[in-house]
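User: What would this chain look like folded?
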Amino acid sequence: MCAQRVLPPFNDPLTVSSQCAVAAGGGVSEDVESLHASEPTATSGGAGRLTRWAWAAVICIGVSAAVAIIGITAELNRASLVHRAIADPGTVTRAELVQADDRYGFAALLALAMFGVTAAAFITWQYRTVRRLTAIRPIAFRHRPGWAIGGWFVPFLNLVRPKQMMDDAWLATDRGWERSDRPPMAFHLWWAAWLLSNFVDGFAVRAFDRSSATGLIDADHTAAVGDALTVVAAVLGIWSVWLLDRAAGASTGADPGARPAESRVPRSTRFSRRIDVGPGPGRGEPLPPSRSF
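Assistant: Here's the prediction, encoded as structure tokens.
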């Protein structure tokens, strides 16, 4: 009898509910059907749409790509005007040079602002995704979820740790874990383009003498190449976020804060009260602690 069993055979809510229903004289079929109806599937709602933070990251990355394109036009325009001023000074006015320089400065400030916003959105999304997947497959991760944030700020380590967290997160999904799928090529290409764009941008700032006209032209051309790589990295980054977030949603469900399925058993089938069976304590009296579960 259900109330006389100290421990159930195993902690399966379906088995426990069925045993108690039999002991109480109830029908098992109704309880089983209600349990199956209440249990969410792994792909319900989570596999076909992105989370809010994924959308935030995608939008910010897209805006950053648009800002990079604006930067490319400003850099090439200034380089072209300076080149014309050297070749034929009479064809370029001082006002045009000042205007081109102002456009370049505005594009640089806009890019800096979007870099901060995009970094915040992307790192938040990455951390939340890693934390969700760590809850179901912690063994897939080489590092703690906090490194999804801290890995970006440690010099030299930030060249590898963020990419490691992305790869481990993919391996923790059902697709990566059960099918043994390696991280998508988009991850590798995104990280390579991101690192290369940062290297080229740094080279453009430090390698040329901007006080000279020829140095300014070379710096603007190099910076335009770096911005072009930023656009490529942005496209690959959006694709990477899309792939990982959908795979994570298919593995963990749409609601990251949802309770596990076994805790969402219908209230009518839970053991929220003692069941009075057979001789012993009167109806409504609790069973001894040692004989209940």
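Residues 210 and 216 are 4 Å apart (CA to CA). If you want, I can go into more detail on any region.
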